[in-house]
Amino acid sequence: MPNGDKVLVTGGAGFVGSHLVDKLVERGFAVTVLDNMSTGALANVSQHIGNRNFRLARGDVRNALRVREETKHSKVVFHLAAIADVQQSVRYPVHTNEVNVLGTLNLLEACRNKDVDLMVYASSCAVYGDAGREKTCEDHTLEPLSPYAASKLAAENYCLAFHRTYGVPVVCLRFFNIYGPRQNLGPYAGVVARFVQRLLRNQPPIIFGDGKQSRDFVNVKDALKACLLSLERKKAVGKAINVGSGRATTISDLARLLIHLTHRIHIRPIHRLAREGEVRHSLASISRARQVLGYWPTISLKKGLQQYLEWSRKSASQP
Question: Is 148 a catalytic residue?
Fold first, then answer.
C-alpha cells in the first residue's frame, strides 16, 4: 500500500489499536480512529492530535450510518473495536453480540459498498474453546465456551462469508493473549495487567483456579507485525490466521516470573474459584502465519514483561 492512503482503525484509542495507529501514522498513512471511548483512552492517541494525517472520530460501530460515513474514503479498515472481556460477556451477552457481531456486520456492509481494498478483523483464540495442550492450528474444531467467544466466531464467519459471497478482501487474525504497554488497568484487565497492578501495590496476584491453566502470551509489538504484514501479503486474504508466540505459559508460572521481576519474593499468589467461560489451555500453531504473512515473533515473555513493568511504573508515577 502506498503511503498517504486513508486507513480507518475502529477501537483505535484502545490498547492494541493505539499502537497500530502509532505505526500507521509513522509510515505516513492518513489515519482515522473510530472509537466510542468506552474502554479507549484519549491519552493513547493524544500525541497525534494536530497531525494532519490523524483524525479522531468519536462514534460507535453499532451505528451503521456513522460506520458508512467513516469508511467512505478509506482504502483499508482495521476492525479492533469490541467487547473484549469474557466475564463482561457472561454478564451482558446481548450487548456483547450487538457490539461484536452487529458492529462487524456494519463494517462489512460499508466495505462492500465502498470497495475497500482490505479489511483486517481482530479475531480471537477464544473461538477454539478448550483446545488442549497441543498447538492449535486454524483448522482445529471451533467450540467457543463463552458469549464473547461465540460473538468473535460469529463475526469471523461473517467476514469470511462476505469474502466468499461478495469478494470483500478480508483477513481474520486470531490473536492469542496480547500484553504490553497501555493494556487496560480497569476491572476487565488481562491477567498480566492485573498481576502487575497488584504486585506493584505489594498485593498478591489472584489466580482463578489451580494455576495450571496455560496461555500463549504474545507481545503487542509482535501482534502489530501481523497487522502490518497483512497490508502486504495478498495471499492472506480470505484466511483466518493465528497470531501468537507459539509458547505456552501456565498462570502460576506467569505469577512466579512477575514476582521475581518485581522483586516481591515474599509474596505468594492467592487462589480463588475458576471463572465461568474461561478455557483451560490455549496455544497457537503459527505455521500459517509464517507461511502466509512471513510473521515471526521476536520478543520473549521475560523481555516483554520487563518492558511492561517499566511502562507500568512510569504510568503509576505520573499525576
Answer: yes
